[in-house]
Model the fold of this input.
Amino acid sequence: MPGWTHESVNGLPMGRKRIFRQPFVVTGIAMVLALCLAAVVAPLFDSPTGQNLVHRLAAPGSENFLLGSDHFGRDILSRIIWGARVSLRVGIIASSISLIIGAILGTAAGYFGGKIDAIIMRFTDVMMGFPPLLFLIAIAATFEPGINTAMLAIGLVSWPSMARLTRAQVMTVMSREYIIAGTAMGYSHIRLMVNHVLPNCIAPLLVAFSLGISGAVMAEASLSFLGLGVQPPDASWGVMINEGKDFLRVAPWISIFPGVAIALTVLGFNLLGEGLRDVLDVKG
Amino acid sequence: MHLIIIKRLFHGIPVILGVITISFILMYVAPGDPVFALVGEYYDDATLENLRHQLGLDRSLIVQYSAYLKRITTGDLGISFVTGRPVWDDLAEKFPYTLQLALAAMIIAIVAGISLGIFSALKKNTVWDKLSILLSLTGVSAPVFWVALLLILWVGVNLQWLPPTGYGGLKFLVLPAIALGTRSMAMLTRLTRAFMLDTMNEDYITTARAKGVPERWIIFKHAFRNMAIPLITVIGLDFGSYVSGAVLTESVFGWPGIGRFALNAIMKRDFPAIQGSVLFMAVIFVLVNIMVDILYAWVDPRIRQRITDGT
Done:
C-alpha cells in the first residue's frame, strides 16, 4: 500500500495505537463484535421460520423462550439472532455499494475538476434533492421487494454524500507534493488516483463507511417494516416489529426486543464511526 | 438579500429538473404494465391497446418525457388510479396535515432538545448530564416507527393519556409529533451541549462574567447567538425531511398526510399518484433546502458576502 506511507495522519498507522484508549470506540467495537458473534452463531439457534403454535405468544422468561415467542410460536431470541445476519449483510453490502459509487465519482470529480467535476456534482445535487426515505421507498417499490432490492436501493440512495466527502478530500490531497511529483514523472491518471490519491483519503471514508452501515441498518429496518424489504417469514428486525404491532396490547415483546436490537446496532456503529473520527483526526 | 434569494432559486431549477427526470425514469423502468392497474379482471388485447394509446404509453420515450414535462408545467400530475381524482388535488388536500405534524415535531424537538442540551452542559459530569447523553444517544439510534409503537403502547394504551392513533384535535397531534421529533431532539441536545461546553470557556464569556452580567443573559444573549448556523443546519435538514412526507410516522399513527398517501399509492401501484407524490415531495424538499440557504445568508453576513461575490 504505497499511499499509506505518504501521510500517516490520514492513514491508519498513526491512529492504531490510540484506538483502544477511546472509551467510545471500545464500546462501539464491543457492540459491533457482539453483533458479528450473533450472526456467526445463528445456526446454533432454532430456525427463524419454524412454527410452534402450541407455544404461541409465550411471555419473556417462560420455559425455552427467554425473550418470549410470537404469534406463530417462534422464539423471539432466535429470530433476533438470525436477524443480525440480515442487518449485518445489508449494512455492509449497501454501505459498500455507496462507498464504491461515491468513491469513484468523488475521486473523478476532485481529480479531474472542470467540466467532469461540474457534471458529476450537479448529478450529485439532483440525487440529494430527493428526500432520502421517500427515494428509497420509491426505488424499493419499483422493483421486486426483497433483501437484494433493499441493499441496492440503500446503496443507490446513500452514495451522494460519500461522493461529496471523497471529492472534498481528493481536492485537498491534489495540491500535495507527491501528487505533483507523480504527475511530473508521467504516472497515468489511474495509477495516481488508485495508488496515491485514494489511499490518502481513506480515513474519512472509513468513518463514513462505519456511519453508513448504521444508516443502512436503519433503512433496511424501515423498508422491511413497511413491507418493502425482507419478506416474511424470513427474520428481519423490521419485519418482526411490523408483525408484532398487531399484538401490541397482548404481546408487546414481539416488537420491543427487535427495536432494542436495531437501536443497539445503530448505536454501536455510530460510536465506532465517531470514535474513529476522533482517533483518525477527521474533521466534520 | 433579493439577489441571494434569486440566485438560490435559480440554482434549484436544475435540481428540480433532474428530480422530474429521475421520477419519470423510475416509473418508466418499473416492471409491469401500468394499464393492468386500470382494466380490472376482465379485458381483451384491444382494450389494452386502446388504453395504452390513450395514456400515450405506445409512444417513444422522448415523446412521453416531453409530454410529461409539458403536463407538469401546467400543474397536471395526472389522475390517480385509486381515488379517480387529480393527483394534485389529493396532494393539496393532504399537505396541510403533514405541515401541521412537521411543525409540531420541530417545535417539540427545538424546545426539548435545546433545553436538555443547556441543562446537560450546565450540569456537566453529573448524573443528570449522563442521563441526558444516554437519552440523546437512544433518540438518535432508535427507529422512529419503534418509538412510535412504544408511545402508542405506553401513553396511548396503558396510561390512556392520549389517543393512540387517528386524527382529530390537538391531543391526536402530540404522540406523532413526539415520535417524529425524537431524532431531531436528540441531535439538538448533543449539538447544544457540545456547543455550550466549547463556548462557555471563550474569552468573551469570561469577560461578560467579569462584568457581572447575569448567567442567564450570558447564555441566551452571548453564547447562544453563535449557535445559529449549526442549529439552522440540523433544523433545516430535518424539517425538509418531515415536511416532504413523514412516511413511517404517518403510517403508524394513521395520520392523513402526504407520506401515508404516497405509501398507499406505492402499495397499490397507483403510478400517477406515486410519480406525483415523489415529485411534489422532492420539490418541497428542494424548496426547504433553498430556504435554509437563504436563512444562512440572513443570519451570517460573511455567507451573504460570499454568495453576493459569487465565490
Q: What stands out?
A: Chain B touches chain A through 46 residues (CB under 8 Å). Chain B is about 75% helix and 0% strand.
